[in-house]
Specification:
By secondary structure, the protein is α/β, with parallel strands linked by helices. It folds into three domains: 2-164, Ribosomal Protein S5, domain 2 (2-Layer Sandwich), CATH 3.30.230.10; 187-393, Rossmann fold, CATH 3.40.50.300; 421-498, Helicase, Ruva Protein, domain 3, CATH 1.10.8. The chain is built from 19 helices and 18 strands. A five-stranded parallel β-sheet has the order 11-14-17-10-18. A four-stranded mixed β-sheet has the order 1-2-4-3. A hairpin with a 4-residue loop joins strand 12 (275-276) and strand 13 (281-282). Helix 4 (122-128) runs antiparallel to helix 8. It is elongated, with a radius of gyration of 28 Å. The chain binds zinc ion.
Length: 498
């Protein structure tokens, strides 16, 4: 009678779940039983394991074999359990001595000749592994990895057995050197639109969500692109997280550190935007994780679909329920959206007449619900630029390294970007002057702001203070921030009084 317990991983979405592969050998007629919710591919692993062991003249037990994949209630998919099952069978027969199996994690699909084949979900495993992970050598993911993790790789089963017996040592997984070009954002790529460029700088520094409203061709999409150029490059963890999400979506991964810029068409499905399908895949909100989700023509998107975004915006992750389990994908994206002011698009364009009825304009505006608009911090009304009157920015635009420095300062000060703060946060209270507080409460009462809108006004002012290197939010910063809070189609004029 023999027993062994080998550790492996299952991957659900991009979540890594430890799985124990228990092998029990008992006397009786030869029989191979696999329990623990194995799906079809896992059930077939006994044939691959048997052939692989016999091909290498390794012993295959002629007894009653029971293999249990625990936890029993988690459905097991894919061929990654072939390798731990094979190692478990050998260990239960006493082939190895003095090995602490709790130190190792094995994942890999076996060919009939014992060769190791690629498996799904290697990147999340690499990010989470705290034990000695042993993986197939031919994973395509190694082409996007720059730093070493705790994984050893093998071409076949014999190489692993030789390593476990101490005869040879397996190599670490290969890595690639990736080039990372940090080009400065080109603010001249957009003609005019001083207010739009100022909003882009604010959004880049403070992480605020942004909406552009303006007639067709005034530069809304170009400003969104400009914002993506202003964002600092991803760190190694976020880069690997993005690579995992792209892999889970079966999409080729960009081999650079630039944050994602996802711009789904307004006809995108719910599963395409939020995530879903069978097998479950991440949607655009997760592919834009640590990057930008740009929703152009947002008023054309179904209202129900936009309402689905509210929870992921708040929680920075999305939970997708399935019959037996819940899959969670991260979704810390920066929302940028653009829309025309009316169905024809020319309501605020002095060069084109607008032929929309007031009823049509009202209907168009109401396509975005109040609660959804409340989650957007900056609202910018754009007008067609005048080529002869192209005013430069009052201050020189921030460089990429200056934006990075300002973002790092926020993380050091409060552990997050300004957009994540709410107005009752002590750090905001400490850094707001009494005049600024008076002005804030004045605006709050006269303009009937929601608490969330008040928070946006306060945190946007904090970003203004950061950019101007001011230790405190003063009344001027609140006034500047108020310019970006008007949700109505025509810019409200408001003369703040202290
Ligand atoms: Zn119109």
């Amino acid at each position: 009678m023999g027993y062994s317990q080998i550790h492996s991983y299952a991957v659900s979405g991009i979540e890594v779940i430890p799985v124990s592969v228990e092998t029990h050998l008992s006397s009786g007629l030869p029989k191979f039983t696999l329990v623990g919710l194995p799906e079809a591919v896992v059930k077939e692993s006994k044939e691959r394991v048997r052939s692989a062991l016999m091909h290498h003249q390794l012993p295959f037990p002629k007894q009653r074999i029971t293999i249990n994949l625990a936890p029993a209630d988690l459905p097991k998919q894919g061929g990654a359990f072939d390798l731990p099952i094979a190692i478990g069978l050998l260990a239960a027969q006493g082939l190895f001595s003095d090995i602490d199996w709790s130190e190792y994690v094995f994942c890999g699909e076996l060919g009939l000749a014992g060769q190791l084949r690629p498996i799904q979900g290697v990147l999340p495993m690499l990010m989470q592994a705290c034990k000695q992970l042993i993986l197939p050598a031919s994973q395509p993911e190694y082409q996007v990895i720059q730093s070493k993790h705790t994984a050893l790789v093998a071409e076949d089963l014999l190489a692993i057995i030789s390593h476990l017996k101490g005869e040879t040592t397996l190599p670490q997984h290969p890595t690639q050197t990736l080039t990372s070009n940090e080009n400065e954002p080109d603010f001249n790529s957009v003609v005019g639109q001083t207010l739009g460029k100022q909003a882009v700088t604010l959004a880049a520094v403070g992480g605020h969500a942004l909406r552009f409203i303006g007639p067709p061709g005034c530069g809304k999409s170009l400003l969104a692109q400009l914002l993506s150029e202003c964002l600092p490059h991803l760190n190694e963890h976020d880069y690997l997280m993005r690579a995992s999400l792209y892999q889970a979506a079966h999409l080729p991964h960009p081999d650079n550190y630039r944050p994602s810029f996802r711009s789904p068409h307004h006809s995108v499905s719910r599963a395409g935007l939020i995530g879903g399908g069978n097998p479950i895949r991440p949607g655009e909100i997760s592919l834009a994780h640590q990057g930008i989700l740009f929703l152009d023509e947002i008023a054309e998107m179904p209202r129900k679909l936009l309402e689905c975004l509210r929870e992921p915006i708040e929680q920075q992750q999305v939970h997708l329920a399935r019959a037996s389990h819940i899959v969670t994908f991260p979704s810390a994206f920066q929302l940028i959206c653009a829309m025309n002011p009316c169905p024809c698009g020319y309501l605020t364009d002095p060069n084109h007449p607008c032929d929309c009825s007031s009823q049509a304009i009202e209907q168009y505006q109401s396509r975005l619900s109040g609660p959804f608009l409340d989650r957007i911090a900056l609202h910018v009304h754009l007008h067609p630029p005048h080529l002869s009157n192209d005013q430069p920015l009052s201050n020189a635009p921030l460089t990429l390294s200056a934006i990075q420095t300002l973002r790092t300062q926020q993380f050091e000060r409060q552990g997050c970007l300004n957009n994540q703060l709410n107005t009752a946060h002590p750090i905001l209270k400490q850094n707001t002057s009494s005049e600024a507080y008076t002005l804030l409460s004045n605006i709050y009462q006269t303009q009937h702001l929601s608490m969330r809108a008040l928070g946006h006004l306060h945190t946007t002012a904090f970003t203004f203070a950061d950019i101007s290197d001011s230790p405190h939010i003063n009344a001027q910063h609140i006034e500047q921030a108020w310019m970006f809070q008007s949700k109505a189609m025509h810019l409200k004029t408001y003369a703040p009084s202290i």
